[in-house]
Specification:
Layout (H helix, E strand, L loop, with lengths): L4 E4 L9 H7 L3 E3 L12 H4 L4 E4 L9 H13 L7 H7 L5 H9 L5 H22 L7 H10 L3 E5 L5 H7 L8 E3 L12 H9 L7 E5 L2 H9 L3 E5 L13 E3 L7 H4 L5
Parallel strand pairs: 3-4, 3-6, 4-5, 6-7, 7-8
Antiparallel strand pairs: 1-2
Helix pairs in contact: 3-6, 5-6
Length: 263
């Protein structure tokens, strides 16, 4: 497997912290496989980490097949063809209501929109019952590793049914807080869900780290002022360029370095 090597990197910084962080850290990354990644933070910055916030789809659970199949069935019943490419282009990281309105029109009667949203969940449940779901490789091990180090953990997702997916992979009891689309007025890339997750964990952006896989999720975390590690499980590295660091999978993330623990 191709692995990236890195000398030193600083976190994504915004607002009043820019000057002080820029003076303390400099970015110097190199890649052996053409994908830019970043290394662990310097020890002064890393020592403040006490919490990790995870996105759900593409970060903890491999839910893309279930969502794609569910949308295909939903739109087929309405006489609309919706391919896997359509899903990747129009639905990845996008709330189901926005996907439905984008395909069938924003002027749907409220009762029909509500029914379609319920049907989407029903199709996902059918897929899980018939085929099951797999966690993202390395995700559960990473979560257990973080819990063993005493870190507070949360899920922050645009999904309205996160427990359905967490239960499917046996991870429902691993998090101190779960924030979903019903928790906030605006979905990602608005930072609200990450700001609420920080509050739920009783921490601040300077003490937290986000794991994401979508451009909108990365943008939301950056807007919340949180350092974000992006996985290329869903989008290309180029689309995740705002992230503090980019990794192909969990095997490249050395948690001890990020929390300042001894090697």
């Amino acid at each position: 497997m191709c692995r990236d090597s890195v000398d030193m990197a600083h976190g994504v910084v915004t607002g009043w912290v820019v000057a002080s962080y820029a003076a303390m850290f400099s970015l110097h990354a190199r890649s052996t496989c053409g994908q830019q990644t970043a290394s662990p933070l310097g020890p002064l910055e890393a020592l403040v980490l006490d919490s990790i916030i995870f996105d759900l789809d593409g970060v903890l659970v491999q839910s893309e097949p279930a969502h794609a199949w569910a949308f295909q069935q939903l739109f087929a019943a309405e006489g609309v063809t919706f391919t896997r490419d359509d899903f990747k282009r129009r639905a990845l990281g996008v709330p189901r209501r926005r996907v439905i309105e984008g395909v069938l029109g924003a002027d749907l009667p409220p009762e029909k929109l509500a029914r379609l949203m319920r049907d989407k969940v029903r199709y996902v449940e059918q897929y899980i019952d018939e085929q099951g779901l797999e966690p993202i490789p390395g995700a559960l091990g990473f979560v257990h590793n973080a819990r063993a180090r005493g870190l507070k953990l949360a899920v922050a997702t645009v999904s309205r049914t996160p427990m359905l997916f967490l239960n499917a992979i046996g991870a429902a009891d691993l998090f101190d807080a779960v924030l979903d689309r019903t928790s906030v007025e605006r979905p990602k890339p608005d930072p609200s869900v990450y700001l609420k997750a920080l509050a739920a964990l009783e921490t601040t952006a300077a003490h937290a780290l986000v794991i994401e896989d979508s451009p909108s999720g990365v943008s939301a975390a950056v807007a919340a002022g949180v350092r974000v590690l992006a996985l290329t499980t869903t989008a290309t590295a180029a689309r995740l360029h705002q992230a503090t660091a980019i990794f192909p999978d969990y095997s490249g993330i050395d948690l001890d370095h990020w929390i300042g623990a001894p090697p």
